[in-house]
Amino acid sequence: LKRKNIDIALLQETHLLKADMGRFADRFFHTIAFSSAGTKTKGVAIVVRRSLPVKIATSWADESGRVAIAQIEVHSRKIALISLYAPDDFRKDFYNLITTKMRELTDYSFIVGADFNAVWDPVSDRSSATSSGGQSMATNALKSWANNLDYLFASPQLFQPVNTATLLPIALSDHKGVFCSYTKQFVSGLKEFLNFNVGSVEDPSILWDAIKGFIRSNAILFSSNARKSRSLHLQNLEREFTRLESILQSNFTEQVALQHTIIKKEINNILKQQSEFQIQRTRQKYYFHGAR
Fold it and tell me: Which of 16, 85, 131, 221 is least enclosed by beta carbons within 10 angstroms?
């Protein structure tokens, strides 16, 4: 992890007892969430570089070494880090558990690292296209899990700045590590702007005015895009809320009722945030300015 300059690692098959998880930490990294079984089997963990400016809201883990979740805030983004290790044999209760837990995290974007012990496409992902009954059920459950969560929790804005996504070579185990890196768009743009303009004028105040203009224009663009994205997201949520409400009136089911409740909670959170922002803006405009 240190050699690859990893900031966040989602680990599966740690094979450590609960009492031994502290041994994984050192002066560079610490474990913010983990799950261990009663024996040295299974095990998942979420490891973060100590120097990374992360605020940890809360964490959760099951008792069987299969699921670990950490809710964090990093660079003003609320992200739920999720490390999963699926059973070798198909178990419906595993997918029911992770679906339920993830639906509770309505105001977080997701990053999931997992060993699902299942493939997405048997034709492309297996040397033999034939699958056993259990393998086919695991594939169907994996697709169903992803599709059921997608309309609520897909967060493309979280992954726009991804630079690389690489499968690391198998050297120490029978698993390939997945390595992703990203940079903040504003930081990379500012560096490029400085590299191009530093030394172009003799008066540093002219350069400073140009830098302020660059920062201002990027801030306005970011704010505009974020506002449009939030508005579109709210419209989609309200449309889905109305659809589910109509279904419940004619045919009540627990699953639809749960989705209905979760979407209602997310709509309320968005409207609450908008109201708080408007109140703060009003205070700044009519009180802070007047005080001067």
Answer: 221
